[in-house]
Please model this.
Amino acid sequence: MNVSIRQIHPVFVGEVSGIDISRRLSRDEIAAVEAGMDRYAVLVFHDQKLTDEQQMAFSRNFGPLEDARGGNITRPEDKRLQVGMNDVSNLGKDGRPLDRESRVRLFNLGNMLWHSDSSFRPIPAKYSLLSARVVNPVGGNTEFADMRAAYDALDADTKALIEDLVCEHSLMYSRGSLGMLDYSEEERAMFRPVRQRLVRTHPVSGRRSLYLSSHAGGIVGMPMPEARILLRELTEHATQPGFVYVHRWRPSDFVMWDNRQMMHRVRRYDESQPRDMRRTTVAGDAPTTVQVQAVSSA
Model:
């Protein structure tokens, strides 16, 4: 095994070499990648030309894939990719960039807000794994914010204030902030708010982290304006330049990150040109509020 990981940001992010993720990995290689995720939370792999099947096979080394249903408004008959793949491109089923007024395109603009993938699900995601198949020539960088370092930098009073707070997350909150307020009854049921802890503890390292997202629109037991001011202040704190890594995509780049410890967003790009980015998502294994229940019953 020749897996090597080099830290490329002052507080997080590892660049991986010595591994071809298109093939079946050894147990030691899988363990090295998972240990790298526990330590760095974001791993960057270059020159990884993958098929969708190879990407899904690599992702399953770290747990079952998340069911993508309920995470977008694209109708099943309009989906471009097979089950198991999340399409975070700007392309329609015909392979061409979506029209400017496309409701799917407008909904997907929410990916430009700071968020954690699937925080709007009762059991949020563990890892996201993103493969760059076609890179847009202008813009389209992805930014990652280390929520562990952000938590560590909070003052003691703020840590005490937020320790046991529980937020409500919904895609209607994040898209509502962009002016998308019109949903069918089926969509409203699908996007109904779920509860997540504001402070999470990593199961391996034991490090605390903020669990923030544009999907978070309220805090249980707190007036809405007060909750949103607090969430905005924490997000501004967590996305300071010192906590943020900017990934400038190259063709065949592959990046995986731990949603339990990171927020991310994509930056604007020239949407008249194709950008083909394909994500797999490793499912989480428990609700975040289990920690709250455990504390309450102790």
Notes: The chain has one domain: 4-285. Residues 4-285 form a domain with the Double-stranded beta-helix fold (CATH 3.60.130.10). The longest helix spans residues 224-238. Confidence is low (pLDDT under 50) at residues 292-298.
